[in-house]
């Protein structure tokens, strides 16, 4: 009788657990994993795939039978809710959710890494924050330095000033010295700031329009680049990519950036997804990862990674593609022009005609290249923003 009672109690607990999870959003990967673990076959298959993913992460060579088991497990889970699950940008246990996503989406075929799909939920259907930015901004007198004004507004918000002070304190400790700067903690502090502070604050701080170099310097130093961005020497961009792909958060942010900032020549806004806000959000998501981008100078709105393609050997084209995602990305470039408050009767790329020497088009090294395995499509030829900053947008 006691055994039967325990059995019935266990069944009730399982059913209640299942019902609780079913009541939550079905797109959540953590929910999908828990539902899978309640089923014995799905549980065993998922554990197999976890081992396959672990072997790949540790670069362990698998024999033929092991590879077949991994592929069969991946095919089986392709019929479960795990295949279509997503993660939310501000969710708790985000790293765990992303690990689940990449476990299911990590292909075991040779030399192939699929970053075509972002693990994050579509930002259009995510819950939007209600903020008091406008009320706080009304308390700050107009300043000639927009970046300084954005900082003053942030200082009036308890959460904004606290998280900004947190990362600034961490990142400035030993900044400029690789022996003293804790880049990992600095990156974590930056991610906390951009994830937990409403975008009304973060976007105005990061994308504030500037008319002079003093303002531009404040904007460029927003992320404390001496610690978060720069190394004593520029590493190869291929090494930077490898570091990113080994990290679930960076890999996820890169996939999100590729999806939402994918250029399209035929699109009026330059983006294949036609979502300017999503592109800028994806760009901000890269900050605080091994592939953190930043402004290249105090007088430019062009952004780049801190890396070089020198000594890339036969992978030079792939390396150029990595840099081109930021330096020559038409979608990202147009979003910057709009967000920074720059206006012109014609689009920047049309205004800078090839017949005007100061605004001659800069040939991108990334045009007409074969697509590397981590990318969606080759990024098209576009104009470097810094080339036309002074001549196309005179102060």
UniProtKB/TrEMBL annotation:
A single Gene Ontology CC term: receptor complex
Signal peptide interval: 1-27
SUPFAM superfamilies: GDNF receptor-like
Subcellular locations according to the entry: Cell membrane
Domain GDNF/GAS1 per the UniProt entry, residue ranges: 29-109, 147-227, 237-331
Membrane topology: Lipid-anchor; GPI-anchor
Keywords: Cell membrane, Glycoprotein, GPI-anchor, Lipoprotein, Membrane, Receptor, Signal
Domain of life: Eukaryota
Pfam families: GDNF
Glycoprotein is among the record's keywords: yes
Family indicated by similarity: Belongs to the GDNFR family.
Name of this protein: GDNF family receptor alpha 3
């Amino acid at each position: 009788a006691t055994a039967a009672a325990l059995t019935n109690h266990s069944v009730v607990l399982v059913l209640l657990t299942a019902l609780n999870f079913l009541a939550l959003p079905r797109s959540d990967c953590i929910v999908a994993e828990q539902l899978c673990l309640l089923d014995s076959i799905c549980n065993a298959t998922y554990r197999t795939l976890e081992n396959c993913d672990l072997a790949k992460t540790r670069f362990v060579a698998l024999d033929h039978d092991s590879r077949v088991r991994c592929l069969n497990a991946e095919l089986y889970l392709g019929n479960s809710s795990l295949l279509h699950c997503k993660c939310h940008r501000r969710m708790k246990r985000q790293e765990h959710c992303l690990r689940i996503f990449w476990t299911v989406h990590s292909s075991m075929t040779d030399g192939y890494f699929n970053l075509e799909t972002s693990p994050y939920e579509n930002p259009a259907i995510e819950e939007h924050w209600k903020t008091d930015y406008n009320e706080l901004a009304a308390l700050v007198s107009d300043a000639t330095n927009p970046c300084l004004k954005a900082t003053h507004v942030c200082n009036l918000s308890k959460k904004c000033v606290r998280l900004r002070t947190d990362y600034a304190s961490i990142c400035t400790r030993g900044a400029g010295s690789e022996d003293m700067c804790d880049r990992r903690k600095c990156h974590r502090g930056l991610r906390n700031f951009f994830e937990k502070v409403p975008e009304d604050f973060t976007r105005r701080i990061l994308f504030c329009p500037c008319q002079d170099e003093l303002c531009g310097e404040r904007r460029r130093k927003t992320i404390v680049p001496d610690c978060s961005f720069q190394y004593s020497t520029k590493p190869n961009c291929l090494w930077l990519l490898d570091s990113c792909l080994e990290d679930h958060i960076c890999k996820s942010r890169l996939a999100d950036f590729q999806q939402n900032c994918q250029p399209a020549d035929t699109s009026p806004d330059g983006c294949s997804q036609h979502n300017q806000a999503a592109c800028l959000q994806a760009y901000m998501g890269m900050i605080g990862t091994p592939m953190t981008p930043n402004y290249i100078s105090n007088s430019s709105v062009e952004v780049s990674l801190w890396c070089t393609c020198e000594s890339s050997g036969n992978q030079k084209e792939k390396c150029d593609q990595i840099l081109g995602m930021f330096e020559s990305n038409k979608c990202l470039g147009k979003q910057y022009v709009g967000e920074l408050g720059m206006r012109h009767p014609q689009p920047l790329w049309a205004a800078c005609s090839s017949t005007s020497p100061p605004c001659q088009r800069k040939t991108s090294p990334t045009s007409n290249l074969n697509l590397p395995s981590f990318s969606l499509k080759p990024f098209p030829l576009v104009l470097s923003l810094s080339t036309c900053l002074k001549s196309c947008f005179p102060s």
